[in-house]
Amino acid sequence: MERPGVLRWFGYAVGLRLPSRYADWVLHDATSKHWRARYVLERSTGIVPLCLVWLLLPGPLGLRLSLVLMAALVAYFYSCAYMEESIEHRLGKHGFPHGTGRRLRAEAAEAAHAEATARYIARYRAHPEG
């Protein structure tokens, strides 16, 4: 799986499409165990610079900090509220059928649940042979 370089990653984080050779990485990015954290980090590439600019505006520091806090809260709220839809749109831009991310994440969760259930049964429900 080929990973994009820093500049390509920044472009990807702000919504640009990566070349097709990164398709496996894009799928991994959208379906890995930590896909939510990765998504929030990617959204931060657009939110943090704006907050830094707002800190430089003239006015009392308390007012500027309040502006930054409220703007960041609203931006992260809406980014996270539409996280799954955004990820599905991103996968679609990279050539994957709609619903691929949800399906793969559901399959992984189901497999993890089955594995945990099997461990539980083996540990607590197994009858000793005797």
From TrEMBL:
Membrane-spanning segments: 40-57, 63-83
Domain of life, source organism: Bacteria
InterPro entries in the record: DUF5313
Entry keywords, A to Z: Membrane, Transmembrane, Transmembrane helix
Protein name: DUF5313 family protein
Species: Amycolatopsis heterodermiae
